[in-house]
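Lab notebook, bench 4. Still working through the backlog of constructs that have no structural model yet. Next entry is a single chain of 346 residues. Request: give me the structure tokens for it.
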Amino acid sequence: MQPDKPAFFAMGRPDNPRWLAPTGYRPRDESFLGWQPYRITSRFAWAAMKSAARWGVAPAMLPPDNFYVRCIANLDWREFGWRHKADPEPLVYLGTPGPRRKAVVHLIDPASHHCELVVKVPIAEGAKQAIRHEAQSLLQLEREGFSAAPRLVALDEAAGIASQTVLAGSRAPLKYTRETALLLQSLERPGECLNSQAVTLSLETKLRRLELAAADAPPIRQAIERISENGDVPAVRIHGDFTPWNIKLQNGTAALLDWESSEARGLPLHDAYHFVHIARCLFGKRPRPMWQELRFRYPFILTAPQRRKLELAYLAHMLVTDLASPGQSYASYLLATLREAMAVRP
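Model written out:
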């Protein structure tokens, strides 16, 4: 148990705050000050909140029994790798609401004002398994010598709480850059192949467990049938949430955060399609297939029909995954994109 636990105030909407900070905290950490939303309107609101916090003009502190405060109030940061003499200032980012929501606690050294450790704490029950999975993925990445990821520091298996090293840098832009392309290429698994029929069987099994509307099932089944025609394709590691906000850029290199949905072996272009489609969905762009426009290319050759089928594989995979979760936040966009992709011939 930590002595003298700080009280917190919230930044963001009172019913759905985005950050929690200790009462009296003056933001000086570069990663926090550099964080900003992608939407212009949200940037103005965020800038105003940061300015208010820096000048000590903050909302009233949250009560000790606040749900978000209770998630982190009794944690001993030294059990998760904090080694400094002084206690840290815990700056808390609250993830997107949903079945895997978590609190990402940035432990700030009060002397240097730098974030020295990141601790992930489950808020929703589903986050526990996601955090455990990420911890195992980080260990495997370290064993393989992959350097563009955090390092696991500590894991409480029962509680589903893990700590990891800090990745410094700025967030990636919404479009592909040289750094993001090189990062994607680093996920290749040279000499390894994956059979498309094995992927098809897995998707068919997941699809049978879903209760779909009569109009929704046929295009998904047709897409899955087309995927198996690819045969053997080069295998790559799948990050699972390859998005601009999970990529850190620094000095011409890029690194990846949030490995909670990663897979050791998967189909190529999965992460590349996710990068473009999730941004199009969140920013209100019209659903449409992207295999013809996708800028990213691996060193190995993928034909136009293969790129199209790999986009169908991505859309089908994400659909059966999203439809199985309570939120289904991405499903309608995916389904509309899938219908468009099925209608276009290479």
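Notes after review: The first strand starts at residue 8 and ends at 13. Residues 89 and 108 are 5 Å apart (CA to CA). Flag for follow-up if needed.
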